[in-house]
Amino acid sequence: MSFLYPILSQRSSDLLVQRRLLSQLQADQLDLLRIQTQISTGRRVLLPSDSPLSAARGINVQRILEEKQQSRTNIDTSRSFLAATDNALSTVSKLINEAKSVAIGAAQSTISDSQRATYAQQIQQSIVQLLNAGNYSFRGRHLFAGSQTSANPFNQLGDYIAFSGDETLLRSYLDDEQLLASNLTASEVFGAISSDVRGNRDMNPILTRDTRLADLRGGLGITLGAIQISDGTYGQIVDLSSAKTIDDVLRLIERNPPAGRKLTARINDFGLSIDIDDAGGGNLNITEVGNGTTAAELGIYNRLGTGTSPIVGQDLNPQLVATTLVDDILGTHAKAYIASAGTNNDLVVTTRKNGTDWNGVKIQFVDDSLLQAGPAVTAGNETASYSATPVAARAALKLYGLNNNLVLTAQTPGSTMNDIRIDIVNAGSIGNNATVSYNSGTRVLTLGIDSSGATTTQALMNSINFHGTFSAAYDGTDPSDGGFLAAASVPISNTGTSRGNTGRSGGDAKTLFVNIAPGKSTAKNIVDAINNTPAVSDLFIAELDPSDSTTTSLAGRGLIDPQVIAQTSGGTGESIDLQSGLQITNGDTTTTVDLSSARTIEDILNLINRSGAYVTASVNASGNGIDIRSTLSGADFYVGENGGTTATQLGIRSLHANTSLSELNHGRGVETTAGTAFQIQRTDGVTVNIDLAGTLTIQDVLDRINAAGGLNAQLASVGNGIVIEDTIGGASPLVITKNGNHQAAWDLGLVPVSQRQATGTGVPPAIRGSDTNPHEVEGVFNSFQRLYEALQTNNQTEIERAAAMLEVDLDRLLFGRSDVGARQQGLDAVTQRIEDEEVELNTVLTKEIDADLAETITNLASRQASLQASLQLTSKVYKLSLLDFL
Amino acid sequence: MSLFSTLQIANNALSAQQLGLQVTGNNVANANTPGYIRERLTLAPATANRIGGLLVGLGVDVQGVVLQTDRFLEERLRISSADVANTEAQSTTYSELESLLGELSDNDLSTSLTRFFGSVNDVLNQPDNLSVRNLAIQQGATLSTDIRRLDKRIRDVRSDLDGRISGAVSRVNGLLRKIADLNLKIVSFEGGGSSKSDAVGLRDERSQTANELTRLIGCTTIEQPDGALAVFARGDYLVSNGTIRKIGARYDYDRGMARANLEFIDTQAPIAIDSGELAGQITGRDAILGGALDQLGNITAELIHEFNKVHASGQGLTGYSELTGEFPVSSTTLPLDQAGLPFPPENGTFQLLMYNKQTKQSTTTNINVRLNGMEDDNSLDDVAAALDAIDGLSAEVTPDRKLRIRSDSSNFTFGFANDTSGILASLGINTFFSGSTSSNIAINANLRNDPTKFAASSTGFGKDSKNAEVLAALLDFPLPHLTGESVASMYENFISETAQAAANTKAANQGFAAFNATLESQMLSISGVNLDEEAVRMIAYQRAYQAAARMIKAVDDLLGTLVNL
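^ Those are the sequences you sent over. The predicted structure of the assembly is below.
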C-alpha cells in the first residue's frame, strides 16, 4: 500500500528509520506490480472497485455491446429471409407478367382454338411454378406460410388451390425495442385469403359480471384508478386499481359506501347502475379522484347527483371475445329481481333467451301444501315449472273421514282465481246433497253439507262441478285416505272456514312457478330448484343477488317471502338461431355447418373453421362481429342459411337484403334499365311486368316484385338466392320470362343464363333463383386459375376479368416487393447505425476500462526511478553510524 | 565524612555506570526487536549528609529501570490497528466477492444474462426451428447454473469466514488467559507500584499480547494503578487482574447456513465486537456476503417471476396432458395471496385453452382469480374447482397442496393464456424457470424434457411468436413495481454498489493504515532504540566509570599516603 505519512516526532529511532524505508520500498514495488499488471492486461480497471464509476459505465457499455452483437445476428437472419422472399417474389412477378400477356393475347377474338389451348397449357405450367414459389422454403421455413412454417402452405385440390397457412408476421428485434417482420404474409403478396365475407352486423355483446375491463369500450379498456362516491354529505374514495373484471368493480363499489350508507351496484345490460339506499336521503354523486378518468370511462361519472335514484351508466360497449357466450349477443335477457325483506334472500332470475318476448314472465311462489292432500314439498326439495299458457288455480280439500279427499280446479285458467278461500258450512238436513256458492267480492267459495253426514263425496263433487266455478276431482295423493269411494260420507266435522285455498297456484300465460314450503324455503333452495329442473333451466338461470349477501357462507340462507311476485323486464333484441346452422358453398362443395352445440363465440368460430369448407372465421378487427373468409383460390364462395336465420343474425350471409346490386356477378352488377325487366305469370294466369328502374339493393328488387301482388319474393331460407312464391293458389303454372334483351332476370339468377324463362316448382309453386353474388379469393392463384378455365371454355368476359385481376395482383405484388426492399434498406441503415454505435461504445469502454499505454509506461519509468532512489537511500542511511567513528 | 565514604560514593558510581551500560547493552541488543520498548536507567543524587554546617552529597542513587513509552499513545495505536484490521478484513472480503462476480470479464453473470436473452431473440429469428428453442432452454439452464454457482461460491466464502470467526474463539480465550497471567506476574514483580522499576520484558510481552487481542476483537485496555491491565469490550470486562471471562460460539441459521455468534460463556450475552479483524470478518460474512446473497436472490427472484409470468401466459408448440404445479400453498382454503406462495398472485383472470388434437382447435375458458381482500377471495381449492368444471379437464389439489391438472382424454391437451393475476407463475405452472431464488433457480423439468413447451406464442399453440417478443425484451423492460428498474439495471446496480462499497472500504482501510503508521512512527520515535543515542550513552557511562575508578585510585593514593605515614 503506498501512502505517505508525516513525521510528527521529535526523536528518531533505528526501527522507525527502518520501517519508513521498508514501507517506501513496499509502496514502490506495489506500484510497479500494479503498473506491470496494467501493461500486461491492457486494463486500467482490473476490479470494479479500482474505479467504481468507470466500472459501472464499463459494465453497462459491455452489456450494450453484447446486445448489439445479438442485434447483428437478428438482422443477418432477417436479411437472409427477406432476400429469399425477394427472390421468390421476382419469380412470381415474372409469371404474372407472362400471364398478363397471355390474357391480352387471348382476349383477341381472332385467335384459333389450338392457340388458346397452347395458352391454357402455358398458364397451367405457370400455376405449377407459382405453387413452387408460394411454397418456397428457406432455412426450413416456408416463407409465405405465416406461422405454420413446417408444411407447404399452398396445395392444389383439383381445380382449386387451397391455402393452409395463416397471416402471422414473424417479428424479431432489430435494435433496442424496434421489431421488424422477416416475412410477408401470403395475403399481402398472393392474396391467399378472400377479403369477404366481412360480418355486417354488430353482435353487441352485453355486459356480464365476468366481462374483463380490458374488453370494455370496444377493446380500449378502462384506465384504472380511484373514484369518489358521495351521498352529498360524506364522500368515499373507492380504489379500483386492482379490479380486472366488472364483478370486481361492482364488489369494490358495494364494499365501500359513503359512511353509514348502503350501495347497490348492478349491471344494467350494457352499463353499470349504482344505487344508494333511499332511507338516508342525500344526493348520490360519483366523481373522479384527482385527474383520473376512471369514473367517466366506466360511464358512471355524475357530478350533479341523482338524489336517491340510481346513477345509470352509459353503454360500456364490451367487445366480442372468444369466450363471449352466444346467449349474450344480439340483445338483452329479461331479468327479474326477487327481493324479500332482510338480507341474504334476494335472487335474480334471468331468461336464457334474448328479446321482448321474455319480458313480463311472472315468477310465483306456490305454497305446495295447499295443492294436495298428500305430503307437501319440504325445504330443499322445491320444484319449479314454467307454463307459457295460463294455468288454472287449484286447491286441495283434505276432508275428515275416509275416501273423500278432493282437489278443486278453477274453471277459468289464470291468476284471477288465486287466493280464493274455501269454507264448508252446515247446510242443515239436506240429505245426500251439497250446496255451493261463490262470492267473487270476498273471494270465498262456500260449500254446504248435510248436518248428519248424509252428503257423499260424489254429491259434493257433482254440486261443485254443477256450480261451474271449480271442477272437483278425487285427490289420491294421500294414501291414508284409502282411495276414491263415491258413497263415502263427508262428515259434518268438516265444517269450518278456510278449509282450503287456491293460493298462488293459478297463473297467467308465461309464469314460472316454484312450489315451496313457506317459512322454510330459502333463496338458495329456490335457485337450486330453478337451475336443477331441466325444462326450466333451459329457459332461465337463477342466481343469488350478491348485493344482498352479507358473507359467502350466509349468502342465500335467508328465507324468502312467499308473497313476492316478480316479473321479468328488460329483454330486448333477438336470440340467435343456432339450431339451423350455415350453408357454406366453396367451389363444388356445399358444407352444412351445425352450430347447435356452440356455447361461445369461439365454439362458433371453431365449428366453422373445422368444417372443412376451406374457410377461416375470426372475430373482426373492431371486435364486434365475425368475419368468414375463403382460403380456396379459383372457387366461388357463398355463405347462406340452412333453413333458419343463423347467417343473417351473425351478419355473414354473403347475399343479404342490403347487398348492393352493383356487387353482384363479380361486380358486373344487375341491369336496371327502365322498362320491363322480366315478366311473371302468376297462377291465376295474370302476367305482371317488373320494372327495376331505380332499384339499388336486393331488398329493393324484392319489394318491387312483392308490390306486384300475389307473389312473395324473399331470400331463400336454405342456401342463397331469391325465391318467388305464388300466394294465389291458381291452376296456371308460375312462370318468369326474360324480357327481350334485358339482362336482369339472368343477372339476378331468376332465369338460368342462356334460357328465356323458368317455371315454378313445388307446392305452392315457387321460382328458386340462384345466388349471383359469388365471392372469391382475390389473389394471384385465383386469377391464374380463372384465366386457365376461361381459356379452356373460351369465355371472353372471364378472360378480360382475369386480365384485370392480374393487373391488381401485379400491383399488390409490387407493393409487397417494395415493402421487402424498404425493409432491407431499413436493415442496412440499422446495421450501419449499430456499427457506428459499436465504435462509439468501444471508445467509451476503452476510455473507462483500458490502460493508456503511454501514460502507464511513463508511470512505470517514474516508479522505477523512485524505487532506485529508495534503494540507494536505504544503503546510504544504513552505512551511517556513530559506532564507525568510535 | 571520611575517605571511606568517598570511596563508597565512587563505588556506588561504579555500579550505577555498570547498570547504565547494562541497560544500554540491553537496548542495543534489542535494537531490531519488534515491539521492544526502550529502557532507561533513572539515576538520582543520593540524599545529602550534614557534616557540621555543610551538606555534602553522598553520590548517585540508582532509582530504577523504566520503559520509555507513552501509555496513551499505545492505547490509541491499538485502537487504530484494530480499525485497520477491521477494514482490511472487509476489504479482503470485497476483493473475494469481486473476483467471484468476475465482472468486466467475458464470463460474468451479465454476459450469461445477455446470452440467454440473445438466445430468446434467436427464437424470434427462427420460431419454427425446434433446435433454436432448445438452445434457448439450454442457455437458460446455463444462466441458472451460473447463478447457482455464484450463489454457492459466495456461500463457500461465507462459510470459510464463519469458520475463521468460530476458530478465533480459542485464540481470543488464549490471549485473554495470557494477559491475565501476565497481569499477576507484573503486579507481583512490580510489587503493585512499590518498585520504581517496570517489569521489563513482561510488560513488553503483555503489551504485544494486548496488541494482538485488540487487532482481533477491537477491545479497549486500561492499565490499573497496580500495573494490571483491564480489558473491556464495550461495557463488558474481559480481563480483570487475573480473572477472565471466556467467550464461546453459539450457532444460528442465517440465509440457509449455520452461523457462529460470539458470546460470553457465563452469561450467554453476545459480546460486542466493534472493531478488529473479527468485526471485519463478521461484517464481511453478514453484511457484505449476506447482503450480496440477498441482492443476488432478489435479482434472481425478479428474473424468475417476471420471466415466468410472461411465459406462463403463452403457449408452446404443444399443450400439456398433465401438469403439477411446483409450489405448494400453506393452506388450500386461504386466499391465494395469503397462502405462503413465494410470489403472491394478485386479483385477475387467466384463460385455460383446451386443445383438440384431432380438430387442431382450442376452446377458451376464463378462470377468475378473485383477490379483492374480501371474505370470498379465491383459494387454491376454488381455482382447482373452477378448472375441474371445464369439460375434459380434471384438476385437484395434491396431498402436498400443489395444483395438479390433467386432461381426461389423450385427444385433448391444455395450455394457458392471458394471465393477469400472475397465479400461474405463482403456482409454478407453465413456467420457464423453476425455483424461487439464486440458490435453487433451474429450468422447469417439463421444458427441459420437451422444448416444444417453450411458450413463444400468445394466440394459441404454435401460432405466433408474440409471447417470445415480450420475453426477449424483458431484460431491459422497466418493471412498474420496481419504479422502472429492469432486471438488467438491478444487476448493474448490484455490481456498481458492490464496487462502490469495495472502493470505499479500501479507501477507509488506507486512511486507517496511514493513521496507524503515523501513530506507530510516533510510538517508535518514543520507544524505539537509536543506536547512535545508545553509543553516546555508552561513552558517557564508560567515561563516568573511568572517572569513578580514578576517584577510587585517588582515594587509594590518599589512603596510601595515610597508611605510609
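The longest strand of chain A covers residues 331-338. Chain A touches chain B through 87 residues (CB under 8 Å).

Shout if you want it in another format.
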